[in-house]
Write a structure and sequence with these properties.
The complex is a heterodimer of chains A (276) and B (466). Chain A is an alpha/beta fold and 276 residues long. In chain A, 28% of the residues lie in helices and 33% in strands. Chain A contains nine helices and 16 strands. In chain A, 49% of the residues are buried. Classes of the chains: A alpha/beta (276), B alpha/beta (466). The structure holds flavin-adenine dinucleotide (2 copies), iron/sulfur cluster (2 copies) and FE2/S2 (inorganic) cluster.
């Protein structure tokens, strides 16, 4: 059992939870994830670690309420328990002094990107921070990202704040000497960023989020193709070289359970969000 | 009336039409009357060949004698002396190649040997229902031992280590303990309350089970090695193997592990009451012919597939699965397609499996395993329509644990290297079960656990005396 010690709504349908997880906190590194299993009937689902507070014994997670499991997590309040939490799983992001790193976070994944970018900054890197969302109301972790960035940009799909879309990145990529790009966000965002940076020849790390079950290399459900080789995102990743990823496969495999996810979601609404 | 010899008392089973719609146990178990009658058939051989062919050398003859006398309690305690989980071993051991295979009553008329497995399961179930437990006095010791993984190897190791008096802690990666017994073998073969009962017994005798602890991730092996006086590694061989043929990226292609973990551990067969889904089509091809293959095929049947075919490159005779599983699968309408090997998997433009290309095989001279080598017949490829494919061609030790423990010596197969006492190259660290053997059996894992417990005990005594 792991208790939710704090909860906060960051934007519509985007929530942060701080969970007491003393057995996980010490090894929790930026880029790693945990697997939650809210109750006996729930599924195991992954969320990326956003922060780890060793003295309090807590880790923080930020999630988007997209379907049954994340909505159910969203309903839980401070003081409520999660049945099982395993992790940190996966490998930490590569943190070294690369020089100047462009860190691009999209949507809910801005939060875990902030954790990675903070570590990169601590390691001596100059950080160019970029955060983006569909519109200005969905931007999260703006102050936090700004605080650790030497240069900072905002972009929205609809132009309601900052730049519109990702085209402005070309200017940064061509004018600044950038040693590395790290991006976390939707598949669409990470793919677009990777395609852009490829022509500049800048190494770009992405975090892949295929469907997972165990998260420990036992099922092969999370297999992705990187550089023509099959990799398990849970134990070989989740961070990979964005220029080598087979994005179409990832998109295709993420859609396996769409009809079932819809059934779960509808049933969940009818039952008021909790498992009977 | 006591009838020595005679024919085996048949086991009542759930009717086929019923059981393919549920996950309840297929064998219904002997009644008291039946079990006694079956036990009374035993001729109590002087040399008891059955015992020699039991990997843990259970005192089978004495156990059967007690059953014949209706002294189920004593029979249970005898079984427990050598076998920590008789309710489980009795259900899943490949008895036909072990204890029952050499019973003189069975020679000549196959299947007529004493039904040792079912007797064993009966007395263990009886003990569970009647609250009979093995009692032992523990003289507590100060030393601590950590066990990694909670499958049958660790279960038996934990029991014996407690008997020696050690503080025992099991670290398990998943949210439920039991290893394959929990996530792999389906409930219609091994009801989960039996697994839970054995695990609760561990807790009762003072074993601490720490779930959701992935050694190498949230807790480092190196740290355990410092904190504990000795370690047993029972991490199993839980990583799936894929054939490496074209089309394995398609949707609708599962490793048996994923198929079984979703179905059994996560209860996808109860979706949407349980949240984890599974997509099982109407025409399912399952590749392989081991227990895992039979389990996957029978799960597919129960998930509603109309047509389930097992695709095997040899013939039924060579199939490594337990006889009972093959027979049950066939009764359930599953087709065993012999002498075919998949060459590629075909998909539609939405990326879903819609067919499998197979090549016909013939049998050649025996290979290293002693079974005839399957040889492809050039040009005999043909396509079979399927919408789900499950690959059940074996597993290997999980590389998560091994890559995080590079100091541990392994074989070329990725299994952990041990000496004859199951000690690894690291002092005080033992290993056993599938992590050391590769795909093996529950009872061999159990035997390893026992042996490792002895090695650990010796090691600690030696360390203390120097
Ligand atoms: C390594 C990793 C890290 C992740 N980190 C975050 C995070 O920090 N914040 C966040 O909001 N989301 C994160 N996700 C995605 C998150 O796990 C899914 O949104 C969640 O599982 C959806 O479950 P659901 O029942 O709410 O929605 P569903 O209705 O089940 O699915 C909605 C969408 O989520 C995807 N999805 C479903 N099940 C899974 C699964 N078991 N694993 C991955 N994706 C799935 C589906 O493709 C679908 O598009 C991460 C995923 C992975 C693999
Ligand atoms: C579907 C199926 C059917 C089978 N049927 C039969 C049968 O009928 N008869 C028979 O005799 N045998 C059968 N077997 C084989 C038998 O189950 C195995 O040989 C046996 O379970 C091996 O036991 P073990 O203790 O070595 O490992 P496992 O049972 O594999 O348990 C290993 C445990 O270690 C955990 N683990 C792994 N890595 C870590 C880590 N880093 N940290 C913490 N925990 C970790 C795993 O999560 C798992 O719970 C079957 C196997 C399968 C998969
Ligand atoms: S443990 Fe297995 S081999 Fe030994 S007696 Fe029982 S069923 Fe037979
Ligand atoms: S071999 Fe058969 S008949 Fe002989 S003691 Fe064992 S079970 Fe009884
Ligand atoms: S989630 Fe099962 S292998 Fe990665």
């Amino acid at each position: 059992m792991n208790k939710i010690v704090a909860k906060q709504e960051l934007a519509t349908k985007i929530k942060l939870v701080e969970i007491y997880a003393p057995e996980s906190v010490e090894e929790a590194k930026p880029g790693q994830f945990v697997i939650l299993h809210i109750d006996e009937k729930g599924e195991r689902f992954p969320l990326t670690i956003v922060d780890a507070n060793i003295s309090k014994g807590t880790i923080s997670l930020v999630f988007n309420e997209v379907g049954k499991s994340t909505k159910q997590l969203g309903i839980l309040e401070e003081g409520d328990d999660i049945l099982n939490l395993a992790g940190p799983l996966g490998n930490p992001s590569e943190i070294e002094n690369f020089g100047r790193v462009l860190c691009i976070g999209g949507g809910v994944m801005i939060a875990p990107l902030w954790f990675v970018a903070s570590a990169l900054r601590k390691a001596g890197n100059e950080i160019i921070g970029v955060i983006g969302a569909r519109n200005k109301d969905l931007l999260i972790f703006e102050d936090e990202m700004k605080a650790i960035s030497d240069e900072f940009y905002i972009t929205t799909d609809d132009g309601s704040k900052g730049y519109t879309g990702l085209d402005f990145l070309n200017k940064i990529l061509s004018q600044k000497n950038i040693n590395r790009v790290v991006t976390m966000g939707s598949v669409v965002t990470m793919k677009a960023v990777s395609e852009m940076t490829k022509s500049y020849g800048i190494k770009t790390m992405v975090t892949l989020t295929p469907i997972m079950v165990d998260g420990t290399g036992m099922c092969g459900c999370c297999r992705v193709s990187v550089g023509g080789e099959i990799k398990y995102a849970c134990i070989d990743g989740p961070e990979f070289d964005g220029h080598a990823v087979d994005w179409n496969l990832l998109v295709s495999r993420k859609r396996i359970y769409l009809p079932e996810e819809r059934i779960s979601s509808l049933l969940n609404e009818r039952l008021g969000g909790i498992n009977p | 009336m006591i009838q020595i010899g005679g024919t085996r008392i048949p086991m009542q089973e759930q009717k086929v039409q019923e059981r393919i719609k549920n996950f309840y146990s297929v064998p219904l178990g002997y009644t008291e009357k039946e079990v006694v009658a079956e036990a009374q058939r035993c001729i109590l051989c002087k040399d008891a060949p059955c015992e020699k062919f039991c990997p843990v050398n259970m005192k089978i003859r004495d156990m059967i004698r007690k059953v014949a006398e209706r002294d189920f309690k004593q029979a249970f305690l005898i079984a427990k002396e050598d076998n920590a989980i008789p309710a489980i071993a009795g259900r899943v051991c490949p008895q036909e190649n072990q204890c029952e295979g050499v019973c003189p009553l069975g020679i000549g008329f196959t299947g007529n040997g004493i039904n040792i497995g079912k007797l064993e399961a009966f007395i263990a179930d009886w003990a569970m229902e009647n609250g009979i437990k093995e009692k032992f006095y523990v003289k507590e010791r100060a030393e601590k031992v950590a066990l990694i993984g909670s499958g049958p190897a660790s279960i038996s190791c934990a029991v014996d280590l407690r008997k020696f008096g050690y503080k025992v802690t099991i670290y398990e990666a998943l949210h439920k303990a039991g290893g394959v017994l929990q996530y792999g073998i389906p409930a219609f073969r091994l009801p989960k309350d039996i697994v839970e009962y054995e695990l609760s017994y561990l807790t009762e005798i003072g074993v601490e089970i720490k779930l959701n602890n992935v050694v190498g991730q949230n807790i480092k092996f190196q740290k355990l090695n410092q904190e504990y006086d000795a370690i047993f590694i029972g991490t199993g061989a839980g990583a799936p193997l894929f054939m490496g043929i074209e089309g394995e990226k398609l949707k609708g292609l599962y490793s048996a592990n994923e198929f079984l973990i979703r179905t059994n551990l996560m209860k996808a067969y109860k979706f949407p009451e349980y949240d984890t889904p599974i997509v099982c089509g109407n025409k399912v091809g399952v590749i392989g012919a081991g227990n895992v293959t039979m389990d996957s095929a029978r799960c597919a049947k129960r998930l509603g597939a109309k047509n389930v075919q097992i695709l095997y490159r040899r013939t039924k005779k060579e199939a490594p699965a337990r006889d009972e599983e093959i027979q049950h699968a066939l009764e359930e309408g599953i087709i065993l397609k012999e002498l075919v090997n998949p060459t590629r998997i075909l998909g539609n433009d939405m990326g879903w499996v819609n067919g499998i290309e197979l090549i016909k095989m013939k049998l050649g001279k025996p290979d290293k395993s002693g079974r005839p080598r399957p040889i492809p017949i050039q040009g005999s490829e043909f396509i079979m329509e399927v919408d789900t494919v499950v690959e059940a061609i074996g597993t290997k030790p999980n590389r998560l644990f091994l890559t995080k423990t590079p100091e541990l010596e392994t074989t070329d197969w990725g299994t952990i290297k041990v000496d004859k006492n199951l000690m690894t190259n690291i002092k005080g660290v033992t290993a056993g079960g599938d992590a050391m053997r590769g795909n093996a059996t529950v009872i061999l894992a159990l035997g390893d656990g026992r042996k490792a417990a002895k090695t650990v005990h010796k090691y600690i005594l030696m360390k203390n005396s120097t």
